[in-house]
Task: structure prediction
Amino acid sequence: MSERKSNLLIPALGAAVLVVVGGVAAYFYFNKPTGGALTPLASAKVVPSEALMVTYISTDPQVWGQLQQFGTPEAQQAIAKGLENFNQESLAKSNVNYEQDLKPWVGSIMVAVMPPDAGKPVQDAPKAKPESNFLLVVGIKDKVSALKFYTKVGAEKDTKIKKTNYKGVEISESENKGKPAYTAVLNDYLVLSGNQKTLENAVDTFKGDPSFANKEGAGNILAQGVDVQNPIAQFYLPEYGKAMEDFIKDSANAAQFPPETLQQLKQVKSVVAGIGIDQAGLRMKAIANLDPTKNKFEYQPSPGKIVSQLPADTLGLITGQGISRYWSAIVEEAKTNPTTKSAIDQARQQVKTVNFDLDKDVFGWMDDEFAIAAIPSNQGILAQVGFGGALVFKTSDRATAEATLKKLDDLVKNYSLAVVPRTVDGKSVTEWQIPSQGALLGHGWLDEKSVFIALGGPIVDVIATKPPQSLESHPSFKAATGSLPKPNVGYFYIDMGKTMLIVNKFAQGANAIPPEANAVLNSITGIGVTAVSPNKSISQFEVLVALKAKTSK
Result:
């Protein structure tokens, strides 16, 4: 990307835009609410229809003020310091004061991603990569204050402004340190871009050309949004497949994307997402509208019972249902996808060299619920790393599962590992032991249908022994997953407190996490993720960053 066209949002007003998009958070976070904002649908009416996606950022201080209910004193102080430093750096470069210059008139912010700009070829790079292209739409709630701000910025000594007329609308072309920006006022909106044609297209849209709001399906998703409380940002992609196609086409690795991959991406017709603040913390929801004729995966909810077989101090986990079904869907897809077929054939051949059938011995018996968990331990072979891993599978085909584990036991005997049986809490387990170091891995059955594989001798004992308190009843797990939708496909979960203890153990010296970042991370209780699919036309994704309630010293 050329230096001339970098920072395309509004280069001449670069520092001011940083305050609008980022620095406003400082005010919204630490000050009381005043005023309202315009709607996403209204803002989208001045965005050209060819926009690939739009992001709508809330400027309602009452919404941002909801963050005040969270965080330790250290986290609050770290955030305040970071935002203060950010604003000081931005304001020093732009002579802009948020309270005086921006707050009185900024009513909403929408950022539109436009098709990449091919630009003009230069002598040494005739096939230069198309450059990013953005349009910023700022809602004006007080035109007098907006004019004062614009006049102030225009008076800065390093800013040169040339005014032109396009279809009766005055466009200001500014240049600051060699970087261009184009701005115009369209009734209640200030539109800005680093690309002249994009700005002119916005004027055409204002005068009646098709808008993003008119695009098929866009109006509904803009009006409905996503059901999150106190939304701080919303994202809209009404033509997801086209957006991905354009992204891949303009990617440096475009040649590496086979046509079949693009066809898979086109299963998704549109996406709408939102981030909001509720009593539990920061919550993101995304809804993907799918083409049911191209969606090959059949959704089945996970029973959610396997979590009760994991200990309360589990660091993190992934749970789900029916690995064998997903494998079957991939195999079916391979019939029409040469790339997938090649990958499957290679995998089958690799496991066949050690006398395993990938379809039967590995995936065939994984037909029920499963969990992959990280569990803390400072004993034995795990003493240095501080944690081990465990896999638990429920299966309706115990005979095949036992046969596969027996094959593995026989295989590792060829690698100087001792295969030793022992009993833990009345359960028969088999361990792979390294001489003079202890158990590397162990496996056994928790009940008639639940088999486990554990990394490290201490984890074998933990998994095989019925936990006095299971993960499902632990406060961190409940905080991160308790309000997620049920039934669902399963969970991705991280206990942030326990995880940070291990991270800080290894992040020492020059690699140590800065105190401010550590304070913010330690204010997170846990992270929970899940998905649901009511039918083959819709897939819903939800993430919760569970935050600790605000505490005082």
Observations:
- Residues 197 and 491 are 46 Å apart (CA to CA).
- Confidence is low (pLDDT under 50) at residues 1-37, 118-126.
